[in-house]
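Subject: two folds for Thursday's group meeting

Dear M.,

Sorry for the delay on this. The cluster queue was jammed most of the week, so I only got both jobs back this morning. I'm pasting them in the order they finished. Each block is the input sequence followed by the predicted structure tokens. Could you check whether the formatting survives your parser before we put anything on slides? The first protein is the one we discussed after the seminar.
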Amino acid sequence: MAFANKLTKIRKSRNLTQQELAQKVGIGISQMRRYEKGSSSPTLEVIKNLSITLGVSTDELIFDTNERVAASKILDKDLLRQFETVSSLTPHDLEAVKTVLESIILKNKIEEILPGKGKKQSWEEEMREVQKKFRKKASKYSEQEIEDIVNEAVTEVRAEEESRKGEESVGA
């Protein structure tokens, strides 16, 4: 799909008029019309501002699904689908996803630096550690919201583990 069509589709999905989007991005209405007609191409700065204002990645504005940069780097298709879905989350939920990911990445970096140090934690202990880090960074969330997010993540991980075990036993 051409940039002009994507821009129009995303703008309309956000219930914005051309005038409203132009004002939020800091460009004139006539320039916005040219972008949506395809008779003009925005600068990188305008693309960045459009992306921020519309709450989508620049990849979504510029590339077709099979051309996206993330698609070429993330080989796990389920993970790619999940990352693409993240862009449509509320800012509140997006911050929760970032915090959980950051905690897991930090844990793995520490394990890389200190391999074999201390005893290996069980999965439950690791999740408690991640949850503790998450609680520190998620001060905007209520205890119930944090508990719901963690429980949902645990349920998903366990379901994936069960699915993998089932596939392994079928293949054995």
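Second protein, same layout:
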Amino acid sequence: MNPRNLGNFFKSKFGLFVVFVLVLFSGIWMYGRHQAGEREVAKLAAQKGKKIELGQVKMPLNQGLESGVPQHVKPNASAGASADKETTGGGIVPFRPAAPAPIASAAVATAGSARTGSAPKPEPKPRKVRYASLLASYDAPAVRTERPETPAPEKFIPFGTLLKCKLVNTIDSANLETPVIAMLLEDVWQNGKKVIPANTLVHGTARSGRMRDRVTATGAWRFVWQDGRELVFNGVALDREYEHEIDGYGITDGSGGIKGRVMATDDLQELKMLASAALSGFAHGTQDRQQNALGTTITGSVSNGVREGVGDVFDLYAKRTLKDIEENGYYVRVAAGKEFYVYVLESVDPQKASIAGVKMRATPAAADEGAAQTPLQNPTKG
């Protein structure tokens, strides 16, 4: 900006208005500083002229005291008068306990000894009786630290067992904590004994959200037998990629989560976002502009106002569509019939199963369940 343009700017109405505003605010600021200084000076002057009166002790501290030594009161006729005088003196009345009254037997003994002329015999001091402390004489019984050892269960599922399951319901990661209902495909054997029979229901919970194309299901799982027994255990859901036609496994077999299909809430949501952003930019770019001393500005007209409003509307719609795509745009759906594993994270004892929250005793039928020795199946087969 050259000096000529600067001079023309200050000669214009807008330049004069800017100068007037600067001068006005400078005067208001200087006046406020002056008023604040005057208030501070008045406050300091008021604090210097104020007197501080300290309290004084009007009564001596040793009035009515006997230098810490207890005194005996001699019985005389003027005791009542002196007591009244001390009470009405306005000071602290000293504590002077009266002497105990003489015992009649002691007086008789003194009179008898005076007649006989012999000295009175001193009374024997009472013998102190010492009692043993109850804490010293009490012997606490020894605490038994031995606990009965719990026998090892005959049948159990060890840590790290893979339970082959099949989904009964469809799972969507868009829903909050979708229940997972599955069924055991094979009997669970351990040491030649059948622990969990096939077709036993396995219930879990899938967490909301997705991890790529997987649905995660971790935490507490529950066995539900056909006779109503229930047993809770901890496990993690793993994907099972088994091809029955070739009798083999895929490369993602045993990976975390249950693999599903990525679904879109709206197939045209991305196209809507892109179209809204393009229309917003077009509306803002076609506004009329002019060059002045301050730079390029948008001229005030009805057409420019309409274009500005249309551009803001399309811009807001594009941002809203993008937010919906980030939050709820895509989700994973796992259809019913999908096979997966449940990786057991603890040892499971079927004898701890309960019915309706009540632990049941082991019955002969339950004890003999799966007792027959059958050859174990090949774990590499599906």
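Two things I noticed about the second structure. The chain is about 30% helix and 20% strand. Helices lie at 3-11, 13-49, 79-88, 104-116, 134-137, 269-285, 302-328, 364-367.

Cheers,
T.
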